[in-house]
Amino acid sequence: MKLALNALALQLMQMSPADEPPEAGAPEPGGRPEPPRSTRPDRGRQRGAAPETPAALPWQARPGWRGRALAAWIQFDVVDLPWLQMAYEGRRRDGLTCVKLSRSRHVLRVRRPERFGARDPRGVYVKRYLINTPRRRLGNLLSGGKARREFRLGWRLIQRGLRTARPLAYVIADPMRILDRQAPPGFARAASFLVTEEVLNDGTIYEWARRGDAAGCEGFYPALARYIAAMHQRGFYHDDLSGKNICVASGEELRAWLAADRGAATAAANGLLSQFILFDVDHGRLFREGKVPYRLRMRNVFQILRSLRHFDMKTRAARRQFVEDYLEAAGLSTARRRRAAEKSINRFARARLGHELV
Fold first, then answer.
1. Cα-Cα-Cα-Cα dihedral of 341, 257, 232, 263, to 10°?
2. What domains are defined for the chain?
3. Tens of pLDDT along 124-133?
């Protein structure tokens, strides 16, 4: 199986161009400007044309690597960061903080250089996607690199009105490096890197529920249900949605907004989308606005209920009320739709948890 995957990947490498393709809308020599290209998700087909990403500077990090950056100062050598030392020797050193370690990715927080915004407390996050299995090698050859895909997807979400960490740069390995099984082991092997701007926030939905802040904030969960409905209305589906990858932008602003808000019909116009921030969007899919399939919508609702079921969603009545708030915001609040939603959510719950939720 591994030999077959490597043979197919080698054929793809030979067919792929050596250089980074031009940005969407850039004119080819002697030809007409090319229309914006849409980024397809890893699974499923992206529907509808997406707006192009901002113009970026070519970034030749080192031989065997290529990428793009939105500003010159971001072009530090992400490949040469002390990934191995941060993983095994300590979580903090020389302005670096290790945020996450897993088999598929490592994340470091890098302090912003003093000569570029010394008064700005925000740093940048560098996410390293590991390419350490035949399946990941083939997937990166087919998609052009997971970091590149998330870079483009992040900008499309911003252009559709959803707040997320602003992508600043990406670096991907050349196909030959991805296929090279003789490369040194560990952190020197092929990977792709994404640099995003740090977003100041007041904690995740999960943290709010655990501390009891969400229960003490009147209207919090109806607003969250309306936000998820608005996210789906803009065509975004998150394959791994939970209370840990949605953050509250500002607790004070959210409480003031909830006190002044009147009705779900004007949710998009009166600032709902600015109250929450999405993270870890690399698992997402982008559809045409309003065209997220019903089954995927219910899967996202189930994922939120599952992540909060030990806190404010302990009772079935609370979970059913959340589903009702979502359906009302999505314009699906009929008796037939409610029964279908409960049936779909319980099907997911029985498969994942072994029992029903609503």
1. 50
2. 39-197 (no CATH), 205-352 (1.10.510)
3. 899 988 877 7
